[in-house]
Amino acid sequence: MSTPMTPAENVAYLEGIFAKAMYGAAAGANAMAEYLARRIAEDTLRRRKHAPGQYYKAKPGEPPAYGSGTLADSMYWEPSPVSRGVRASALVGSSDKRAALFELGGCVLQPTKEPLMTWRDSGRPDNPGGWWSHKKLPLSGEVAEHPFIGPTVEEAIDDGELTRVAIDAFREYDP
Fold first, then answer.
1. How far apart are CA 6 and CA 12, in angstroms?
2. How many CA atoms are closer than 13 Å to the CA of 66, on its beta-carbon side?
3. What does 90-133 look like in DSSP terms, one character per residue?
4. Is 0.90 surpassed by the pTM of this model?
5. Taking the CA of residue 89 as centre, how many other CA atoms within 13 Å lie in the half-sphere pointing to its CB?
């Protein structure tokens, strides 16, 4: 049989439980962000592959294809600031300069140092092994969206993995 607690001991005990539980939101946010960055890099951005430098035109709305792996390798997550509360936010992103163009479409790329952007294109039938160069892209119209972050978040919510990851991370802080 346990020894009865005084009211002061009871308050201190409950404050300890509450203090520990307050870190659960940040733990859950961090776990979800880490999971999403890994899932995007290891799954979403590897669903369609082509050789580096080979021409590949993804259908609008599809994630970009995996060529060199630069976009997948650029995925990162930043942890939630240490907070004590029921809300927390962590960040998932890409350090690749093209990420916003793929995710949102509609951007125009321009060279930063040279007068032309140049790349070797080994897979296009009308220019096999040739070099392409442009002052800006696209030459006409907008670039179609090729989102990879948003759809991965939606898939992870729909298949329950994002909830599972958050719950597993919170368990340590569950009173």
1. 10
2. 14
3. -EEEE--TTHHHHHH----B--SSSSSEEEEESS-TTSTTEEEE
4. no
5. 1
Beta-strand runs (E) in the chain: 75-78, 91-94, 117-121, 130-134
HSE-CB for 144 with a 13 A CA cutoff: 9
Kindly report the CA angle at 14 between 13 and 19, in degrees rounded to 5? 100
Q: pLDDT tens across 16-33, in order? A: 887 777 788 889 999 999
Q: Are 28 and 112 in contact (CB under 8 A)?
A: no
Asked if 48 and 83 count as a contact pair (C-beta separation under 8 A), the reply is no
**Per-residue tokens: 167:** 């719950």
**What is the rounded CA–CA span in Å between residue 53 and residue 38?**
25
d(CA 93, CA 37): 7
Burial zone of 4 (CB within 10 Å; 0-12 exposed, 13-18 middle, 19+ buried): exposed
